[in-house]
Amino acid sequence: MESSISQPCQGFYPLRLLRSWLASQPVQTPQAAHRIAKLIPAQCPFKRDLVLFGHKIGHIPPLCKLNPLYEELVALRFKALCYLVDECGEDIGTLT
């Protein structure tokens, strides 16, 4: 008899649908690729050090990992950047 702890969590059903939809989205135009690369940040924007009078008093960890769609969004951004490099021949140094 298997324990439910050893099985990976399947997630909430609508989230699984959204995950599979995001994973299956193709990047087909340069405009869409630029929009995706601009909307999805390269780094987690929430990671911060709290500083008061020059002394670090606390730290806010990256909260992106708590987002249930984090991996799919990062993969979509990666697909968009690959499209811009491979299909359009663009330099993505300014987008990262």
From TrEMBL:
InterPro entries: Mo-dep_Nase_C. It holds the Pfam family Mo-nitro_C. Residues 15-93 form the Mo-dependent nitrogenase C-terminal domain. It comes from the Bacteria. This is Mo-dependent nitrogenase C-terminal domain-containing protein. It comes from Vasconcelosia minhoensis LEGE 07310.
